[in-house]
Protein 1
Amino acid sequence: MIYFDNAATSWPKPPGVIEAMVYFMQKVGANPGRSGHRLSVEAGRIVYEAREALAELFHIEDPLRIAFGYNVTEGLNLALRGILRPGDHVITSSMEHNSVMRPLRALEREGVELTVVACSPQGFLDPADVEAAVRPHTVMVVLNHGSNVVGSLLPVAEAGRICRQHGLLLLVDAAQTAGAYPIDVEADGIDLLGFTGHKALCGPMGTGGLYIGPRVDLERFEPLIRGGTGSRSEMEEQPDFLPDLCESGTANTVGLAGLGAGVRFLLEQGVENIRCHEQALTAQLIEGLKAIPSTGSGQAPSTGPSAGSGRGSGRRPGVTVYGGHDAARQTATVSFNVAGLEPSEVGLRLDEEYGILCRVGLHCAPSAHKTIGTFPTGTVRFGLGYFNTKEEVEAAVQAVREIAG
Ligand SMILES: Cc1ncc(COP(=O)(O)O)c(C=O)c1O
């Protein structure tokens, strides 16, 4: 079996992740930050160590500025709902996941003004277009760091500079890059960073959160929910300090034990080394898929501004690879279509005949597919990860070649 669905959830996990979770369940088990006994203190230590590991990974000065939640969707909703008010203007890109688009569309109905800046058909964003969209009442720019459809990297550092110049906040959806690509909230000018534990951070599902930087006004910030925090129990009002302001109710502590171990694994390996391995596999995959010969007969299942080679030649390529065709400018996620076949058909054959597991369709990002011209059919998506090998990429290219006929 070849697992190429790491863009959805990474698998397998480093052994230390499972060991940390089993250790927590067998030896600790208590509620962190609630009681004063030794097991509760130990649980609190495990949660704090996960915070510290993430702070080191993202170059966050104060680990207490990380609010844990169940996934990046919750973190992004927290940031958007926490800050935006009717009358505010927010800018985003056309490559966003529905975890950004849906809360923004709901906020739009409540009186927040939204500008969606168009990306190129290869999935890239020109930072000048972001700057051109700034208005007097703009409050925030929200960007997907790495597209979950074509892997294109969006210019967060340039957007960070624009935001600083105009006094705006920058919220980054790092679902696809956290753990796979270097992130430095200081150097990149990121005020809010949403991350999810179960992808490249190597943790389990049910973990994620939001970094809330010092430029965010906590007095105006609205948490998504309020409740018990184990702190300031004499008060009936929510604590006004981080992370308690945004962390109500008992945490997924066993999950955070695993997430902490996952991030420590990444720190040991070095994100630069992980990136280097994944970039080499991505280049091999893109080249391999592009080299599959044209059949000359089939039609790609999609219409629109396809980025595939052979465009305008009159003969459809056997395989259309989307995105910029440059591994240095993208994550290890590659989308393609086989001429004449629906993505779902290709995915089924890859699974049943070749044991290759991937994702097909729209990947919860309809706007991104409209941008690259593959809406509504979508694409076949190979999401490579740190544990994949060049032999697996070679086998997958061969499988697609056979399917393409
Ligand atoms: C870019 C992007 N944003 C947000 C999400 C949502 O992640 P989660 O389901 O972990 O909240 C994903 C997951 O596929 C994603 O790729």
Protein 2
Amino acid sequence: MFRQGIHRCMRLYSPSLELSKGILNRNGAAYIRTCYSSQKRLAATSVSNADTLKKPDMFCYQCEQTKSRRGCVTVGVCGKSAQVAALQDLLMYVIKGLAVHANRAINMGIYSSEACDTFVKKAMFSTLTNVNFDQDRFPEYIRQAVEYRDEFRAPLIAAYTKRGEPLCEALTQGPAVWKPEKGYDDMEYLENEGHKVGVLEDQQIYGPDINGVRYMTLYGIKGLSAYACHAEALGENDPWVSKFIYRALDFLVSAKKAERFDLGLNLQMALDVGATNLRVMELLDKGHRRILGTPTPTDVCTTPKEGKCILVSGHDLVDLHTLLKSTEGTGINVYTHGEMMPAHMYPKLNAFKSLAGHFGGAWQNQKIDFATFPGPVLASTNCVIEPLRSYRDRLYTLNDTGIHGVRHLDLHNPTQMKQLLEHANSLSGFDSKTAKKYDDRHLVVGFGREVIAQHADTVINAVKSGDLQRICVIGGCDGSEHKRNYFTNLAKSLPSQTLILTMGCAKYRLNTINFGTLGNTGIPRLLDMGQCNDSYGAIMVAKTLADILDTDINSLPLSISLSWFEQKAVAVLLSLLSLGVKNIKLGPIMPAFLTPGVREALDEKFGIVPVDIRHPDEDMDDMFHN
Ligand code: SF4
Ligand code: SF4
């Protein structure tokens, strides 16, 4: 059996995270120890999804919608071209080379570059699912990564020389020394270079099991980088996070061979990613509240107002804030889309009269929503997809988001902001007749951790009286697949003595259903806590309840059904696992990068299992009785 081959005793210690200590172990020891019995090489224990695919045009298995549950091999289901896939692979490769330098320079006390730290996170963000499809942007990312790497190389070599030591092997080979022999303008060359350094090449070395765990680490780092970019936009940064990123990437490249091939150590590194992501989400939570105020339950208007308009999609609330400042008093109405809807729960955003309401649903509906919106549309971050011709010239990308041929905008550039407002004024906007076509859905957002904490006594009393038998977290990402109806059906199947916490765009599966209130407490049974960026809040709620009940998180009447889609969700999942949270149900399908053997090991250690998409009622039953 797979698990019998794992010998490594995994240990987690995250000294900077008091939170971990509180949740994991009431006595304060934040250790996870998992000891497995014997040591065998594991790589051959499961059939490689990738091995069966000989020399495909590309290979990517980083998201849930990956082709045939194995990997996208000609073009991404998301629309990512083989060329962009190769350029992203090359970018990740050179960033690993940069990290090899940065980690050593940090250890020698000669590293300091906030600009590089920010660049690395942004570049990682650009490679997430549904972020950047513009092949023309990637040579510049690659060039910058090489330049930052080489900036650190000279002082590093000098430091080794001064010590009288030869350069370590990792600095003399692979991504540490990759050079753009034909420059950055030769796309075919860059693409060919990218084809040499992707998932399949690594799998030849590590085998599917260990490679999958290593890529889980990488995808988790991508996710935490995305969250860190959001936090930085709010002025929140912790240099320790970047140091961890370099250390983790360096581990993937240059740890001793025995360590790189050690499944236990690789799993531990993935958990460390999760622990670091907790810190990042804490920063994000803090930044949102400091800049935008404390979330408050808020009715969101979904009937458009007559007038000129701009739609903002993605997650970046700072972008929205910037836009609202510029549109206030201009007569241009700003609407949120997708994951921007939680903007309405922040008092300092809601105070703008130009924030007119919400338009449309989750990201996968954008081809309908954007096509029917009579104004410019901004994609601040993910999830954006190749636009239809009907709205292509109205779409703008921001930050590290990109679509080839679609205008890219810097909202902090006054000239570009002016052009955007002129564009909005040149379009029809909503007339009174069109505006009335849209139903006024009753959507309420804003049940942040503070609101729930205020009602903690009521919740605890309801638990004690039996009025509340279970708190179910049903949240995360959404997507277009029919099987995601599972999450709707699961929520519908829950008895009335259940509270449902949701966040992320998975909320759109639930937020038009009337779940009523919990007994006579007046608390709505469905509580929308915000974006996927607000998952930290759900963890804090669990911690608060556990503290009050003098127990740990796994002893709470709490079940988690996580709807995952992309790499932010991987980071959140790893955060939960780093806290020792058990019995998470994950769906709609399990990640393709986790082989059956690794899933078995994760099930054994954490009780993490796939949702049963055909039988949500049985999963519900399981939640209540296991
Ligand atoms: S991001 Fe997802 S859909 Fe896109 S190429 Fe990768 S696995 Fe396929
Ligand atoms: S929650 Fe995930 S799937 Fe939904 S918009 Fe955000 S990144 Fe995309």
Protein 3
Amino acid sequence: MQRKPSEKEEEYFARMEFEKRKKAEEEKQRKLAEEEKKKLKELHYMRCPKCGMGLIEIDYRGIRIDKCSACEGVWLDAGELEAVWKLEKTGFDKLFSVFKR
Ligand SMILES: [Zn+2]
């Protein structure tokens, strides 16, 4: 003969079940977010944030600057603004003369 589980036990098992499913759901969402991030990166990597066209990367004295091939916007990676800021005036002019046609 089986013993009927007490109310407390039923509550406990229901809560365990809920926690288990919640964890699985959170894991699913985390994976989805990662996939979405990966997809977005693939879609946007080396693309202009404004017009979506390809960026051209130039390297000047170790500073890598990305320039849009369409709208001519100029984009800097982390730390590059400070590096550009530290260039003396002639270096700065030379850097931007690279872009001039
Ligand atoms: Zn652009």
